[in-house]
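Entry type: protein chain
Record version: 2
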Amino acid sequence: MLDSIFNVALTSADLTFTDAMITIVVALALGAIISLTYMKTSPAGYSQSFTLTMVLLPVIVAIIILLIGSNVARAFSLAGAFSIIRFRSAPGDPKDITYVLFTMASGLACGVGAFGYAVLFTLALCAVMFVLNKLRFGAAKTVQKTLKVTIPESLGYEEAFAEVFETFGVTYELRKIRTTELGSLYELVYSVTFSETTNQKDFLDMIRTRNGNLDLSLTMTPTVAEY
């Protein structure tokens, strides 16, 4: 029974309507499974367009493989047609790119007729994704952010907030100092590292009491360009 499922004729040039429909249905089902896995393992949020893309991408890849078959000339003509397409979106998260490759692999397996392997690999990798997400594998125990604080010129900036950082166990590095308001104020830019247990609201409240409630900002995703 199992041998009959996995032993497929990958080099067959014959394409029937039944085979095409089976390929499309299986590819669509696998794409839906991968998309649902992505949604369940992405607590930070996701876009609807990306999840819909993952559902349809295996079907599209499978259809392309079905159309190409073993015809070399057709393969080159399709490659030339698809080279016209330009993707202008910014590079995505590595996890998103991995899921795109995942869906393409499933579609490729369906396109060549390896339905058993396609289902096996999809379910196995989705299970691995769930387990790794549940175990929080690779999750950082600390988070680095950018803290910008405005202080009056009367407050010494060298050790202005050293006590606050020490109280909350925050590792910091002063990255930039500049004057504002014609030199009457200083703007300090820190690179700070919080642990999972740090109460960031209490931390910012204590900073505000030290700088006289002047401008204060905490950037969630610091970038070097901001310095």
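Comment: The beta strands are 142-152, 171-180, 185-195, 216-219.
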